[in-house]
Specification:
Elements (H helix, E strand, L loop, with lengths): L1 H28 L3 H17 L2 H9 L2 H11 L5 H18 L2 E2 L5 E4 L3 E10 L4 E8 L4 E8 L3 H31 L4 H23 L13 H15 L21
Antiparallel strand pairs: 1-3, 2-3, 3-4, 4-5
Protein name: OadG family protein
Keywords: Cell membrane, Membrane, Signal, Transmembrane, Transmembrane helix
Subcellular location: Cell membrane
């Protein structure tokens, strides 16, 4: 009985192993490397023979028009992906120059995508072209990777470090300058707060009537009596014969 169970277990293990190998083989068989290489060669040849103006014309086309064009050419590429490839190709030309002399393709398969890599000779720098395909062998993207020497890598890293640190220091200096201006804020606030008060006082003083100078009334009765007595003495008459009704002061204090 035990032998039957052990034999059954071995059979199950063999069946599962065969199923796993079969699924793996079918998964790898989904990608036809020869067809993918033809697609890649078509893209490289087409882009290499196009001028920058021709590439811009494709980039300016509508998605519907570009999809029809790609369908007629037999390339399994969507319009958005094709425009992204044009941008990547232009960037590769700026980095490596004219691309020529492709080497042997190498296929790397992942769970849901595959990458086709090929080395090339560049006018200014050699590099690799990477073509990415989805599980239906539709081309998703193209990447141009230039090969840099150690000196170039160190130079680029140093330049990036200097630019990064320089940007940080410039920002810090600008922030310090802004903070130094905070001390002027109270003076500005006081200036704007005092101005309305001064204008209010000025308007109040302009609206208030000017004070009237009140001249205190003087009692001239004693002065009238003295003047009357002096006139009566000089005339030799009595004070009853005349009446002093008003007294006018002369501008000069001298008697004439």
């Amino acid at each position: 009985m035990k032998k039957k169970f052990s034999l059954l277990g071995l059979v199950l293990i063999l069946v599962l192993s065969l199923v796993g190998c079969g699924s793996k083989a079918s998964e790898e068989a989904e990608y036809d490397q020869a067809t993918m290489e033809q697609y890649a060669d078509t893209i490289v040849t087409s882009f290499s023979n196009m001028s920058e103006e021709n590439l811009d014309q494709f980039a300016d086309m509508s998605d519907l028009e570009l999809n029809l064009t790609l369908m007629q050419s037999g390339l399994p590429i969507e319009a958005d992906d094709f425009k992204s490839m044009i941008d990547a190709w232009k960037a590769g030309l700026d980095e490596c120059g004219t691309i020529s002399d492709l080497g042997d393709y190498e296929l790397t398969v992942k769970s849901s995508s595959a990458t086709l890599t090929v080395p090339f000779k560049g006018e200014t720098r050699d590099g690799d072209l990477e073509f990415t395909f989805d599980e239906k062998m539709n081309m998703d993207s193209i990447t141009v990777n230039g090969h840099y020497g150690m000196a170039e890598i160190l130079k680029k890293a140093g330049l990036n470090t200097v630019l990064g640190m320089g940007t940080v220091f410039v920002v810090l200096i600008f922030i310090s300058f802004i903070i130094s201006l905070f001390k002027f804020i109270p003076a500005i606030q006081n200036k704007f707060s005092k101005k309305p008060q001064a204008e209010t006082k000025k308007e109040a003083s302009a609206a208030a009537p000017a004070p009237v100078e009140v001249v205190p009334a003087t009692d001239d009765s004693e002065l009238i009596a003295v003047i009357s007595a002096a006139i009566a003495a000089s005339e030799g008459t009595s004070t009853d014969g005349f009446v002093v009704r008003s007294i006018k002061r002369r501008k000069s204090n001298k008697w004439s």
